[in-house]
Specification:
The structure holds 2 protein chains of 2 kinds.
Chain A (H helix, E strand, L loop, with lengths): L3 E12 L2 E12 L3 E5 L6 H9 L6 E6 L2 E2 L5 H6 L2 E3 L12 H10 L16 H13 L15 H13 L5 E5 L7 H14 L4 E5 L3 H7 L2 E6 L2 E6 L1 H6 L1 H8 L1 H4 L1
Parallel strand pairs in A: 3-8, 3-9, 6-7, 7-8
Antiparallel strand pairs in A: 1-2, 1-4, 4-5, 9-10
Helix pairs in contact in A: 3-4, 3-5, 5-6
Chain B lengths: L1 H20 L2 H26 L8 H18 L11 H19 L4 H18 L4 H4 L5 E2 L13 H23 L2 H18 L4 H27 L1 E2 L6 H14 L6 H19 L3 H15 L3 H16 L1 H33 L1 H6 L9 E3 L2 E3 L4 H29 L7 H10 L3
Helix pairs in contact in B: 2-7, 2-9, 2-10, 2-11, 3-4, 3-9, 4-5, 4-9, 7-9, 8-9, 10-11, 10-12, 11-13, 13-14, 14-16
Classes of the chains: A alpha/beta, B mainly alpha.
């Protein structure tokens, strides 16, 4: 079994009285595609916010590789090789598609404070941006304002921006939400392709996607991971059926 | 693109020969226009590009002014910093103050950011008269331009060329900045600072630096003002100047690089010209701002872009009738408003009221070179008629404009913006 690249150890998060995450345990192995599923309000998005630095856990430990990252700032966590996308499209709407990706690519070149040289001269950034454009299949749209893209194209752009810093770990928060069937198929192939050689943690409601894409699945209910296993194990798990289908049907 | 370059070259040439044509009093007005243009351009780095609306930018302009004056007094224009290089001290002052104030202000975004900048500027405004060492108390401080490089800077023309040089250089630098990695990030900051964090950028540090750079160029503008007036007092920190740069910038258009330059130059010009003709300039300024915000939120520059896009698409000939009726509409409506305001302003002024004698008809007032009797119907019918005529032509202009727009996807502000900034991709 491969080594864990991301571990959550007994993570808690409360907002005042509301105890949202109650001792979550999770292990993401190097190179695997791992889904987090669960009913609405289970705390999936909160879990992502905790891992990516948007929120700080009330207690518990989050390890990225060997390093405890709980409480780090989002940009610090990004520098350590973890990149995430958002459930609600989170791009630079007034800038062109090319610019959106270029800004994402620029970071790993450490040139954010360069003000003495035109950006046109950084040929490596340009080449990588073009490569990324091709990867998410938006070459034809590169001069279009990101706000004017179709919904699924915006989601593709979001994934492209997430990939730009060449992360070890990728967190995708409901990348397929609101997509049609064809769009979902397209995005599924895209995700499969671009996450080659990386570790993926994904929250998704579309069970077809989850079961066909992922190596392992964790089920989050009321802020606790109640089961983790391969798709087949999860399908057969009695507690998962209870959580999803309701107790009366299983009784 | 080519046309823009030609126009800019022509503009620069015109600015170079200007002092030869203008009378000396007007050269001084031209200097003020240049300074206002640079100030607005510096402000727009923060506001239009960085998406941070500062309500206290006069503070950095003022600090630049005072810093330059102190340097003038201390150095006498000798040594490493002869008179032409003194605005560098203004830049330094603006930058340092910008770093300090920006560090606090950029901790918050949106309205809270604006309020902090406003509070910091007001703090300076109320502290300044008490700090007589720094700001010379209520009287302020003054100095003299020393000769340097074989120039004595005695007359307005030499100061004009010095100002022109600094303003052109600074605006060119500000433009070049938008093409650098940090400049591109500044746009992203406006669009979505939250996302930048998750792409691994230190957003607070970036915001502080953009704030400081903007304050630095405002400081240069302040330094030029100090060189021009040879004095400054704490009134420079007044809220009025902070508001003015906001108005100028928005009237010019925040989404086009040269928009604020256009807005500031025009507003300063009209302000100068109108101050002799009317007492109601502030009212006109406010009206203009409201109209721009309501009917063309992308400002005068947006209007220019809109029309030039039509010209490119349809050719000059097709656009001229619509442009003509639009101009006539604007002319008639402004004439109506000006007529009404000026008549009322004159009739209610204290000077005029003192002339009144009981049981006698009110004496005539002169306006546009003619005498108008307040008792006559025509005096009051005039603005109404002008306004009515303006509205009629407006209907025509609207129909013509819609015909021009026919079979074209609507060009909203977003589309305009992408054209301007997308050109670099």
């Amino acid at each position: 079994m491969s080594r864990a690249i991301l571990q959550l150890r007994d993570v808690h998060k409360s907002f005042g009285e509301a105890h949202i995450i109650r001792g979550a345990q999770l292990e993401l192995h190097t190179g695997e595609r791992h889904a987090v599923i669960g009913p609405n309000g289970a705390g999936k998005s909160t879990l992502f916010h905790l891992i990516s630095g948007q929120l700080q856990p009330s207690s518990g430990q989050i390890l990225l590789g060997e390093e405890a990252i709980q409480g780090y700032s989002p940009q610090h966590i990004n520098h350590l090789g973890l990149s995430r996308s958002f459930q609600i499209t989170n791009i630079f709407p007034g800038l062109s598609v090319f610019e959106n990706l270029r800004i994402a690519v620029m970071r790993k070149h450490g040139m954010q404070y360069h003000f003495w040289r035109s950006i046109q001269r950084y040929s490596e950034v340009r080449a990588q941006t073009e490569q990324l454009l091709e990867q998410v299949r938006l070459q034809d749209k590169q001069t279009v304002c990101a706000a004017e893209l179709s919904y699924s194209e915006q989601r593709a752009l979001e994934i492209g921006m997430t990939l730009a810093c060449d992360p070890r770990v990728i967190l995708l928060d409901e990348p397929m939400a609101g997509m049609s069937h064809e769009e979902t198929d397209y995005a599924l192939n895209l995700i499969r392709e671009v996450t080659q050689g990386r570790s993926l943690l994904i929250v998704e409601h579309d069970m077809d996607v989850v079961f066909s894409l992922c190596d392992r699945i964790s089920v989050l209910v009321y802020g606790e991971v109640i089961a983790t296993g391969t798709p087949d194990q999860i399908r057969a798990d009695r507690r998962v059926q209870e959580a999803y289908l309701g107790e009366e049907q299983c009784a | 693109m080519k046309l823009t370059k030609i126009l800019l070259a022509v503009l620069l040439l015109a600015l170079l020969v200007l002092p030869a044509i203008l009378p000396a009093a007007m050269v001084n007005a031209a200097i003020q226009m240049l300074i206002a243009a640079l100030f607005a351009c510096a402000f727009n780095l923060l506001c239009g590009q960085g998406g941070m609306l500062s309500f206290g930018h006069a503070a950095y302009f003022g600090v630049g002014s005072f810093a330059t004056l102190h340097a003038m007094n201390a150095l006498n224009g000798e040594g490493l910093l002869p008179t032409p290089l003194l605005p560098l001290i203004g830049a330094l002052g603006g930058f340092i103050c910008g770093l300090c104030a920006g560090w606090f202000a950029t901790k918050r975004a949106g309205v809270y950011f604006s309020m902090i900048t406003l509070a910091l500027a007001e703090l300076l405004h109320s502290l300044a008269p008490h700090l007589s060492m720094l700001f010379g108390g209520e009287a302020g401080i003054s100095s003299m331009r020393s000769p340097a490089w074989g120039l004595d800077f005695g007359d307005a023309t030499q100061v004009y060329y010095l100002t022109l040089g600094w303003v052109v250089l600074s605006i060119a630098l500000l433009y070049a900045f938008t093409l650098t990695p940090m400049g591109r990030l500044t746009f992203a900051l406006r669009e979505n600072g939250h996302r930048l964090q998750f792409l691994g950028y230190n957003v607070h540090r970036l915001r502080v630096l953009v704030f400081a750079l903007s304050a630095m160029f405002a400081g240069i503008a302040g330094g030029l003002q100090a060189l021009n007036l040879e004095s400054a007092n704490y009134v420079l920190f007044d809220m009025r100047f902070s508001a003015e740069v906001v108005l100028n910038t928005y009237i010019g258009g925040v989404n086009v690089f040269l928009g604020p330059v256009l807005g500031a130059a025009l507003m300063t010009f009209f302000g100068n010209a109108a101050s002799d003709l009317t007492q109601s300039w502030l009212l006109y300024q406010g009206l203009l701002f409201v109209l721009v915000m309501m009917f063309m939120p992308s400002g005068l520059a947006g209007l220019v872009l809109c029309w030039s896009a039509q010209i490119r698409r349809r050719g000059w000939l097709a656009v001229i009738p619509a442009a003509l009726s639009a101009l006539i509409t604007a002319g008639l409506l402004s004439l109506a408003v000006v007529f009404a305001i000026e008549t009322l302003q004159r009739v209610f002024s204290q000077d005029y009221q003192a002339l009144l004698i009981a049981d006698q008809p009110w004496p005539a007032i002169s306006l546009f070179g003619r005498e108008w009797l307040p008792g006559a119907l025509l005096t009051w019918a005039m603005p109404l008629l002008l306004g009515l005529a303006g509205l009629l032509v407006l209907k025509l202009a609207r129909r013509q404009w819609l015909r021009l727009l026919d079979d074209e996807p609507a060009a909203g502000p977003v589309a305009l913006r992408s054209r301007v900034e997308g050109e670099q991709s």
